[in-house]
Write a structure and sequence with these properties.
12 helices, 43% helix, 342 residues, globular, alpha/beta, Rossmann fold
């Protein structure tokens, strides 16, 4: 049974593809002409050049495919042309669903995001897969586009398509080469570019565990259901504290109000607009940080057998990868670990 993975050149997708290949499954990956394919090195797979936004190309891509992991996503908190994010996340998903239905695909696992459901509840409970959410609650183009795309997938499931949805929280670990917005936090800390922090929080999970959760969803997930793949709710201060312990670098002690962070983001955005470059402090990121994106993750553990590992180890693997791949100036995690062991 040939399996197609989209987004295999990205952070999560490369780990899903590698895990499938390690299990000896015939693997096909969809690669855009402009994609950097470094993360596919060492993964035995058939590479097919194509674009999700070109529906006509997908018929050949899906020929002989019986299972799809649609991991590809445009994960940006800023874009010169926000319409690109909707084309990639919404139109691309719609095209692949349609083509997969026509090709007779027997199983479709869609990678959404916890951002489509991590909204504050009225009674203070942690959000989970059953928490109601609306498009109006989605902050920014990325979250809105993923919310709309997830609705497309749910509609396909109601029409009988064998679709399972996974909602990863915040993956950390090796291979985040772009890096993602969360990866930038780690890189900025390691390079001493984070003098202060805001009061926010995330649910972290090892990227390797997210990949394993995808396969568990394919094996045990119920069509039409959503499963949060997460591990540990942590404040940003706690995350920075873990990074400080791993590296021996001091954690920032100054907490700045959200209003100050928003003002800094506005100035940074205006300045970078003049220079026609991406802002270092994206407005959408600051707006998202106004509430802690903590969630309840027991459904995946209960129904899929999802068992994520410790976050401290995942952060250390991420730090070591960044250091060994040239993202970090000076001593990296390898040296810090050696000092602790001495």
């Amino acid at each position: 049974m040939t399996t197609l993975v989209t987004g295999a050149t990205g952070f999560v997708g490369s780990h899903v593809a590698r895990l499938l290949a390690e299990r000896g499954e015939p693997l096909r990956v969809l690669v855009r002409p402009t994609s950097r394919a470094r993360m596919l090195d060492g993964i035995p797979c058939q590479r097919v050049i194509g674009d999700l936004c070109r529906r006509v190309e997908l018929e050949a891509v899906l020929r002989g495919v019986r299972r799809v992991f649609h991991v590809a996503a445009d994960y940006r908190l800023w874009s010169r042309d926000p319409a690109e994010i909707y084309r990639n996340n919404v139109e691309g998903t719609r095209n692949l669903l349609s083509a997969a239905r026509d090709a007779g695909v027997e199983q479709f696992v869609y990678t959404s995001t916890v951002a489509t459901m991590a909204v504050p509840t009225e009674d203070g409970r942690l959000p989970d897969e059953s928490t109601p959410a609306s498009l109006e609650q989605m902050v920014g183009h990325y979250k809105r586009s993923k919310f709309i795309a997830e609705r497309e997938v749910q509609d396909a499931a109601r029409e009988g398509m064998p679709v399972v949805i996974v909602n990863p929280t915040t993956p950390v670990g090796p291979g985040d080469w772009k890096p993602t917005p969360t990866g930038r936090i780690v890189v900025d800390f390691l390079n001493g570019r984070m003098p202060a922090f805001v009061d926010t929080g995330l649910n972290l999970v090892a990227v390797e565990d997210v990949a394993a959760g995808h396969l568990l969803a394919a094996e045990r997930g119920k069509p039409g259901e959503r499963y949060i793949l997460g591990c540990r709710n942590m404040t940003l201060r706690e995350i920075l504290g873990e990074l400080a312990w791993i590296t021996g670098r001091p954690a920032p002690r100054v907490r700045i109000p959200h209003g100050v962070a928003m003002a800094a983001a506005c100035v940074d955005t205006a300045f970078c607009r003049l220079l026609r470059r991406e802002p270092h402090i994206p407005l959408e990121g600051v707006r998202m940080a106004r509430h802690r994106m903590f969630v309840e993750t027991s459904k995946a553990e209960r129904e899929l057998g999802f068992q994520p590992g410790p976050i401290a180890a995942a952060l250390e693997r991420a730090v070591r990868w960044y250091q060994s791949n040239g993202y970090v100036r000076g001593a990296g995690a390898g040296e810090a670990a050696a000092r602790r062991a001495a």
